[in-house]
Amino acid sequence: MGTGLIGTLVSLVVGGTVAAVSVVGVVSSQTSAPSTSPGDSQAPAASVIDYGSN
Amino acid sequence: MTVDPGPASSPGAVATPAVPRRTALLLDALAVLVAVVLLGPALLPGLVLSYDMVWLPDLPVTQAGWGLVDGAPRAVPSDQVVALLDELVGGVVLQKAVLLGSLVAVGSGAHRVVRTAPAGVRAAAVVLATWNPYVVERLLLGHWTMLLAYAVLPWLHVAGRRAARGRPLPAGWLLLLPIGSLSGSAGVATALAAVLLVGVVGRAGPRRWALLVAALAAANAPWVVAGLAAPGSEPPTAAAARTAAEVFAARGPDGVPAPVAVLGLGGIWNTDVVPASLAGPWAWAWAAAVVGLLVVASRAVAGGPPVRERVAVLGLAAAGLGLGLLTWCWPAASAAVALAVPGGGLLRDGSRLAGLALPALLVGAATAAARATGATRATRAARARGARGDRRGVVLAPALVWVLPLLPVAALPDAALGVQQRLEAVAVPDDLARAADALADDDVPGAVVVLPFATYRAPAWNGGRPVLDPTPRALGASGREVVAADDLYVDGRRLPGEDVRARAVLAALALPDADARTDALLRLGVSHVVVDRGPDVADAPTELVPGLRAKPLLTTDGWDVRRLEGRAAPPLASTGRVVVLAGAWGAFAVLVAAGGLGALRGAVVSALRRNRRAHR
User: Fold this and answer.
1) Could B271 and A52 be called an inter-chain contact, meaning their C-beta atoms sit closer than 8 Å?
2) Distance from CA of A47 to the nearest CA of B (A)
3) What pLDDT, on a 0 to 100 scale, did the predictor assign at position B507?
4) What is the pLDDT of residue B13?
5) Are B376 and B488 contained in the same domain?
6) Considering only CA atoms, which of B203, B247, B180, B232 is closest in space to residue B64?
7) B465 vs A contacts (CB less than 8 Å)
8) Which of B226, B396, B405, B567 has its CA 20 to 30 A from that of B529?
């Protein structure tokens, strides 16, 4: 009984925390500027488009 | 002492309790949901063009698509398969089907690998297989053929387990091999996986090994033969191979060591496609989770996978993750392989095969679930006897299991909605098709060169996102050979391509005056040029888009089509090459047909069985 209650409480706390972190993370990542913006078509173009960068 | 329970007691074995069909369907629905949330705007009308992912509304069937190319056959057989299939459903629908289908397939297969685990663990397997650094980075870099190879992994695993229990391989399993081998790297990954998951896990006998080897040879024949038969492919110099090995070696974003990134299923060479969340502590969390699951996968447990299976999946993970670590710590080795072995350059992108760790991660999850289930049972039994019992059973309370599916999302939140809208569907301008029509309508024979003679673009109509220039593929609809640039630039460092004809064009364009340049191009068989007028290439160096003696045929907002003044040299015929390529494609087609017929037969038999059961 006691251990069952502890298990449930631990589940609720951990589950709630992970769910909150997930939701906050997804929402904030979608509402903030992307870390790497796509090229600005109005900006001066690079001489040759790079395949990527290290 | 641990006891190997043998295949009969492995997850998915006959002896294990049957899993309700409704649960499987719910988990399949979860796989769809996760894939839709991940792809987001990529599923809207239009095409997604990102780095190496170049799709068109109607990709033409071309000679280059068959493998009649001078450089490395990077898009063989993928381009031709797409060109043939988009005749049925169109490129837009086909691309959605491939992107969504590959992610749904891997999630759907993943929960079948851990089918005897608690539903929460199975749901976590779905999310982990779909929502992880490997999938996100490869999606952004446009490696959709690698995602298909990744998607067939759990299905090969399930097939191997079935064979291990003495049952026949699932109907249509052969179809997994060509689906997973639509490019060179994908073919290597699928071949490794098929050997270990179907051959070793499935305890193949001599006949099945022979069938497996023959099927893998057929699945990979188009790109292997095209590469070996390419007459105009020049091996890299030692310096170029070394530079490429350094550039494409696995690495981490700022602040994350490369081994950590690789062990976390990331480590892609192009840090532009690494989500921001992987540049911090979450990268370490991913690495810890992956290593933890691999360690658990190596441990025997009653009711867990047998030793043969564990060795096979850990071997596969070691190959995938080990390659990434090797390219990071010893780039000279991958440079040496690229120099010494034809096609060895496939292995220089160190983290490309990191997805091969998936079966081991799933086995780790299954093993952990079996261990926890055993502990819980022991606790209950002890309590029933009035004893205190093993408290480990309490730690993994049933409700806590439902937290597991959220963990990958919490650790990679910016993957949602097309990785922060970086995967977005766009409309490809109609002017490209008009340019191809103008070339087709002109009766002067010869090849086409696209200027500026550079490999990548960042078109305004694609939101400024970098992509391999789609113009050469679109112009293939004209029926003309298109000579495309194949030099790559990474951080401004030039990596020379292999196509000797492209190199000759580059040399011709560098000549000092328009007449000399035009005559040199004509001698190379070039009769037309198409000049890209997009703002992204407005500042391209003049040697990549120099003046030529040419007559305009068509001028649009995006592209100009011009015919060179003079007669282009006729192309060289190569009948022998056509014959060997026809043989390779024939083998590929036979494999697809055999797999397709097998899948169809299996579907019919299964439907008849269900029907019979329903009428009982």
Assistant:
1) yes
2) 4
3) 96
4) 40
5) no
6) B232
7) 38-39
8) B226
Query: Which domain does B548 fall in, by range?
Result: 431-564
Chain A nearest-CA distance from B114, in A, is 22
Residue B374: which H helix or E strand, with range? helix B358-384
Q: A1 to chain B, minimum CA–CA distance in Å? A: 10
Successive 10-residue mean pLDDT values, chain B, 616 residues: 37 50 94 98 98 97 90 92 97 98 98 93 97 98 98 98 95 95 98 98 97 98 92 82 95 95 97 95 97 95 89 98 96 93 87 98 92 72 65 56 90 96 96 97 97 96 97 97 94 90 95 97 98 92 93 96 96 81 97 96 90 83
- Rounded CA separation B109/B103 (Å): 10
Q: Give the distance from residue A22's alpha carbon to the nearest chain B alpha carbon, in angstroms.
A: 4
Best CA proximity match to B285, nearest among A34, A18, A39, A51: A18
Chain B residues touching A38 at Cβ < 8 A: 422, 458, 463-465
Please report whether residue B458 resides in a domain.
Answer: yes
CA distance A14 to chain B (A): 7
* Cα separations in angstroms, B486 against A37, B79, B496, B538, B613: 25, 17, 7, 20, 58
- As for the ipTM of the complex, it is 0.83
| Contact: B464, A39; criterion CB under 8 Å | yes
> What is the tens place of the pLDDT at every residue in B254-301?
999 999 999 999 999 999 999 999 999 999 999 999 999 999 999 988
Burial B23-34 (b: 16+ CB within 10 A, else e): eeeebbebbbeb
Q: Tokens for B113, please give them.
A: 């690998």
Residue B152: both structure tokens together:
């067939």
Does A7 sit within 8 Å of B277, measured CB to CB? no
Q: Reduce the secondary structure of B217-266 to three states and give it as a string.
A: HHHHHHHHHHHHHCCCECCCCHHHHHHHHHHHCCCCCCCCCHHHHHHCCC
Q: Shortest CB distance from B399 goes to which of A3, A8, A36? A: A8
What's the pLDDT at A34?
57
* Alpha carbon distance B210, B580 (integer Å): 22
**Residue B117 three-state SS:** coil
Question: What pLDDT, in 10s, does the model give residues A5-30?
Answer: 776 777 778 778 877 887 888 887 77
Q: Where does a domain end: B378, B400, B421? A: B421
Q: Is B440 part of any domain?
A: yes
- Taking 70 as the threshold, does the pLDDT of residue A42 lie above it? no
Closest CB to A22: pick one of B409, B452, B540.
Answer: B409
CB B288 within 8 A of CB B351: no
Looking at B396, B421, B446, the residue that finishes a domain is: B421
Q: How many domains does chain B have?
A: 2
The chain A residues in contact with chain B (CB within 8 A) are: 3-4, 6-8, 10-12, 14-15, 18-19, 21-22, 24-26, 28-30, 34-36, 38-42, 44-54
**What confidence score (pLDDT) does residue B599 get?**
94
Q: Could you tell me if B58 and B153 lie in one domain?
A: yes
Residue pair A11/A3 in contact (Cβ under 8 Å)? The answer is no
Q: Which of B138, B272, B469, B494 to mutate to test the interface with A (most CBs of A within 10 A)?
A: B272
Backbone angles phi, psi at B358, to 5 degrees: -55, -50
- Which residues in chain A have their CB less than 8 angstroms from residue B395's CB? 7, 10
Which tokens sit at B35?
């894939």
CB-CB under 8 Å, B406 with A53: no
Q: Is residue B610 part of a domain?
A: no
CB B225 within 8 A of CB B581: yes
pTM for the model: 0.92
